[in-house]
Amino acid sequence: MLPFSPRFLLALLIPFAIISPLIAIALGTANIHFNEVLGAITRTLMAQVSTDAKTMLSDRIIVELRMPRAILAMICGAGLAVSGSVLQSVTRNPLADPYLFGISSGASLGAILALTGGIVFLPLSVCAFLGSLIAVAVVVVMARDGQVETLVLSGVAISFLLSSIANLLLYFSDPQAMQAVLFWSLGSFSRATWSTLITPAVIVATAIVIIYQFQRPLQALMVGDESAHTQGVAVLPLRLGMLILTALMTSSLVATCGGIGFVGLMIPHIIRILIGSASASSLIATALLGGVLMVWVDLLARLILPAQELPVGVMTAMLGSVFFIGLLIKRNQRFR
Amino acid sequence: MSISLLPNVHMEVKNLHWRSPSKQVLNDLSFTVERGKFIGILGPNGVGKSSLLRCMYKYMQPDSGEVLLNNKNINDYSRHEFAAKVAVVLQHAPVGFAMTAKQVLATGLINQQKWWQRINHQAENVEIERVLELVNLSSKAEQVFESLSGGEQQRVLIARALLQKPEILLLDEPTNHLDVGYQVEILKLVKSLNITVVASIHDLNLASAFCDKQLLLQHGKLVGCGQPNQVLTPNSIEDIYGIKTDVDKHPIGDHPRVTYHFDEVNRAAV
After folding, report:
1. At B261, which helix (H) or strand (E)?
2. For chain A, what is the domain count?
3. What percent of chain A has pLDDT over 70?
4. pTM above 0.80?
5. How far is CA A264 from CA A79, A93, A164, A195, in A?
6. Does position B5 have pLDDT exceeding 70, yes or no?
7. Neighbours of B164 (CB within 10 A)
8. CB contact A245 to B (< 8 Å)
């Protein structure tokens, strides 16, 4: 038996998903009272402007800086967690995550070309997006037989190839560009604005709606390709279609927020332990938990050191590693 | 396309050939599957039983020949049409990801709504409870599939096939890895469904007890086809399995009973 019912977990997560961004908006270098946060949001929704100078300033901090940041963190966490969950289902590999298929290294190469090459005149985020899409396109072409093994092997091969090219370019670049690439690759939501979050928001929301509609075939795929075939599932198109959807989600997120690892690996594991992974509720729970976790990690990254921000990617990697080590220790104790 | 003129023929395999990269696995197989009958596919390991079934449920395309379902080539059915008529219980189901028995069962309902349609969970639960009761597993619905015993897992997979409301049930070695009690229980359950069944079975005595018709394969060819007492003879068993046997009438049934001479096995002669 699983420890929680999906409904119970959702009933816990939904209020958390509403309150967490509000708390993240309230806390920061300039602490803002919770009532002021709600007031600023209400005024923005009603298209009103405060006449008080202090309130105007806090409204600007809330609406222009912290709100887009909290929302971007929420979208990023949800998108990466759902991508991980879907990829683990379609490859039946609990270690699959969005970065396994060259997405991260493709984005890094694109970013490095933008920062160092001078040959690319597009903005960094566009280059990173294109880089990761090209990487996934190559993986999909190489693994067009749809076999899980080919898919994972192509992903690993392309990932290493692109990383080596990226590192070579970085080796010959100037230290300033190297610093910029390092900062970008460690992940941050500090560049969040309303305009930067539109593209990932639209892509992630659309992808999650499509994935939700395909829950049943995805669950059938968890019981094996041949079994899914006997249920009338078009295994190959489903697998490649889901890979492309998750690639679009992850590429748009990596391009906007940089490399944030482990969320796509850790959240599906937690959901699987709590409620199992083969239900529509588990998809929603995965998205909510991913979003909530990312909001809190970003908040910690902002607050843990005074007047300094830690990279979010480093925090998630630490958290993820500790989680998996804990999981292993618990498992070893059970078998002792 | 050739049309079968026999009215009670549910499925027909005609001149089927299939070659793996290394050898000819199925060699000019032709037989009929009669409506409502239990057909057993017999033969030693690697003879092509699973390959034949895979051709019958469209997982593999034969090199030549055809499979007809209700007088229509199976390739002329859409994926969903075919799954609504033919359900399959595989030898292995690699169910992971902490899926509960109920969640595994629910995958059998894919065909009942289009991807854009809303799932009616209440109606589905009624259906799932009905088949769980049929396989006597109502109390195990919320248990993780992998934590169930081999026999229970097999019954869940049969229940899932039943959710498809099929005309034909294809089973690939359904009694594999099960103890004697579960073997009989599973085959009794399948027999009680009163639908057309095609199953590959290793145990000759079980196949004799449950099958209306048996197909005996050797080197990918059909070397015996008919009622158990016509197919299972000491000579045919020795030719195919390399073991001497006595075949007589089962003391509490009409079917043949096979007794093995355990000291007279000669696989090299097969």
Report:
1. strand B256-265
2. 1
3. 97
4. yes
5. 8, 13, 24, 25
6. no
7. 22
8. no
**Burial state string for B32-71 with b = 16 or more CB within 10 A and e = fewer than 16:** bbbbebbbbbbbeeebbbbbbbbbbbbbbebeebbbbbeb
What CATH code is carried by the domain that includes residue A322? 1.10.3470.10
Q: pLDDT tens for residues A128-141?
A: 888 888 998 898 88
Whether the predicted pLDDT of B2 surpasses 60: no
Question: Which pair of structure tokens corresponds to residue A330?
Answer: 């618990």
The whole-angstrom separation of Cα B53 and Cα B31 is: 13
Beta strand B38-42 with B213-218 is parallel
Cβ-based contacts of B95 with chain A (< 8 Å): 222-224
Report the SS3 class of residue A195.
Answer: helix
Does any domain span residue A111?
yes
Range of the domain at A194: 6-335
DSSP track, A198-236 = HHHHHHHHHHHHHHHHTHHHHHHHHT-HHHHHHTT--HH
∠ CA B33-B47-B25 to the nearest 5 degrees?
90
Q: Which pairs count as long-range contacts for B192-195, CB under 8 Å and 24+ apart, including other chains?
A: B193/B162, B193/B169, B194/B36, B195/B36, B195/B166, B195/B167, B195/B168, B195/B169
Q: What is the dihedral of CA A307, A313, A318, A321, to 10 degrees?
A: 170
B84 with A276: Cβ contact below 8 A: no
> pLDDT confidence of B142, banded at 50, 70, 90?
confident
Residue B203 to residue B22: CA distance in whole angstroms: 28
Of A219, A227, A277, the CB nearest to B106: A219
Q: Please give the Cα distance from A6 to A14 (Å, whole number).
A: 12
Any domain includes A1: no
**A280 lies within 8 A of chain B by CB:** yes
CB neighbours (10 Å) of residue A165? 15
Evaluate whether residue A287 is within a structural domain.
yes
CA torsion through residues A277, A279, A285, A291, sign: positive
A contacts of B106 (beta carbons < 8 Å): 216, 219, 278
User: What phi and psi values does residue A52 have, to the nearest 5 degrees?
Assistant: -75, 130
B59 chain-A contacts, CB cut-off 8 A: 226, 229-230
Chain B residue numbers touching A8 (CB-CB < 8 A):
none
* Dihedral sign (CA A212, A217, A221, A222): positive
Q: Which of A231, A63, A299 is nearest to B59 (CA)?
A: A231
Locate the chain A residue with the closest alpha carbon to B165. A231
B3: exposed, middle or buried (C-beta count within 10 Å: 0-12, 13-18, 19+)? exposed
The single-letter DSSP state of residue A308 is B
Is A140 part of a structural domain of the chain? yes
Which of A2, A89, A232 lies nearest to residue B82, judging by beta carbons?
A: A232
Exposure string for B76-98, b = 16+ CB within 10 A, e = fewer: ebeebebbbbbbbbbbebebbbb
- Give the C-alpha separation, A81 to A101, whole Å: 15
Q: How would you classify the pairing of strands B72-73 and B64-69?
A: antiparallel
Looking at this predicted complex, what is its ipTM? 0.87
State which amino acid sits at residue B170: L
Residues of chain A with pLDDT under 50: none
Q: Which two tokens stand for residue B96?
A: 């992971």
